[in-house]
Structures are given as C-alpha cells and as structure tokens.
Amino acid sequence: MALTVARFLCKHLAFLLLTLLVVSFLVFTLSEFSPGDVARKILGAYATQEQVEILTKQMGLDRPVLVRYVEFLGKIASGDLGNSTRFKVPVKDIIWTRLANTAFLAALAFACIVPLSMLLGIVAGMRESSALDRAILIFSTVVASVPEFALGVFLASVFVVALGWLPGTATLVAGGGWSVASQLVLPVAVIVLFDAGYVVSMIRASMIEVMQRPYIRTAVLKGMSFRRVVVRHALRNAMINPITVILLQINYLISGVVVVETVFAYPGFGRMMLEAALFKDIALVEVGALVAVGVAVMTQILGDLAYMLLDPRIRA
User: Fold this and answer.
1) Structural domains of the chain in order of their starting residue, each with its CATH number
2) Helix (H, G, I), strand (E, B) or coil at 211
3) 29, 45, 130, 143: least CB-packed within 10 angstroms?
4) Torsion of CA 13, 15, 20, 22, to 10 degrees
C-alpha cells in the first residue's frame, strides 16, 4: 500500500513540474503578444515615445523572448519573483498576502460547503422522489444556476440596503462600526450557496445510484436496519465519485472567486489577478498563473489519491 502511494505521488509530482514548466512558457510568450505596451501603461498616455523606449530598455523588454524566459526561470528558482508594476512592490510582497486572504475565505466557505452538501445530498439520495428530495433538488438547482454577481447583488440588496444588517464591502479592515467577521458573512454566503448547489446534486445522484445496488437491497431484506445499511454500506461507496468533485472545489475557491472578490472589494488573489491583467503587470500575471495552475494540479492529485484510498479496486 505504502509503495503504491509513493509511486503515485512521484508520478504526479513529476507531472506537476512538467505542467508548471509548460504553463510558464505559454503565459510568458502570450504576454508578449497581448495588446498594449507595458512601458506605456506605466508612464501613461501623455509620455513621449522617447520616454517609452528608454523605460522599455531599462526593463529589458527589448531583448529576445527566449533569453528573457530563461532569465525568468532562473529568477523564479532563486526566489526572485520580480516587481509588480501595478502595486509598486515586489511580487512576493503582494501575492502571498493576497493568496493568504483568499485561502482564509476559501477555508471558511469549504468548511460550510462540505457538511452542508453531504447532509443535503445524502438525505435527498436516501429518499428519492420524496417531497424532501424534490425540495432539496429544486434548491440546489436554483442556487447553482444563479450567477455569482447576481447572487451577490441580491444578498447585498437585502441585507445591506434594505435591512442594514451587514456591510457591503469586505476590505478586512475593521471600521465604520463593522467588524471583520461581519464583513465576511456575505462573501462566504455567496460562495457557499453557489458552490454547494452543484456538490449537493453530485452527492444526491451518487447516493441514488448506490441505494439501487443489489447488495443494498439484500442487506435490507436480511433485516439490517436502514440506518445501518446507509452508514456501513451505502455512504462510503456513494462518496467515491463526489470526493473528487469536493476536492476540486478547492481550485475554484482559490482561483475562481474573482467575481465575489470584486463585488465585495475583497483583497484576494482573484481580484489581484484581474487588476494585474488589466494593467498588464506581466511579472504578477506570470507568477499568479503558476500559483493557480499549481493549486489546480495539486487538488487533482489529492482527488485521485482520495479516490484510490476509498476504492480498493483502484489500488489493485
């Protein structure tokens, strides 16, 4: 078992390094052909062409792409992530702070999504076609269908404008009579509602499929209590497929909540990447893309590992 896991991890870590290398080259190359001049963005629209050319040379942007890419890899390997032209600070001083903010928001949302989705999905799957199952299915379908920005605006309209119970922004700076905890309520609520709807549907479908298996019917016919059948036989098998989906939500929670962060002015990783892309902050975009891809591949590895641990057939 230990040897199988070790072989699995070595294989996937090698794949992770290869993926990061390919992505770094693609992002670095594509940034060269994107519209707009970096030096012009920094100096502004009223800078002279001579000033733009001088800054371009100072930044080394007049050298061949491959030369600068190799130099970029060397800097990354040595821990030098470059400087952000958008925030006027070293990239490492901004990206890890923003990533930590998003990770904190993601942890809160994930801690709500998993138990809520499992509870609703399992209950619905145990009683297919019942009134409770239909209610849960309608709820999960509706919340998963509403776009994040619409859900955020709706909740803000109710709890910020109409009732005045919560702040409309989440800047993580206490002020105006609002604590940091109160600022996090709406962003977490939007993420949980939007994401849990999809996960609930997956768990429900998997639970329904397992409950129709012959060994479940046999256990019931032999007199085993329904609760024992669900806990000892159905639950583990029903979670084999959804566990991968649940772990893949980590990737969305880290890199995909840019809309929520923008709506509530949350100083997170997604909003930072949006600003960097609009300002053509090449150094920040490149490092941010590597971080996002690294998170995506790592969650995929964790999902495959969990799948292998839950299903003995995969280990064999």
Assistant:
1) 16-78 (no CATH), 91-315 (1.10.3720.10)
2) helix
3) 45
4) 160
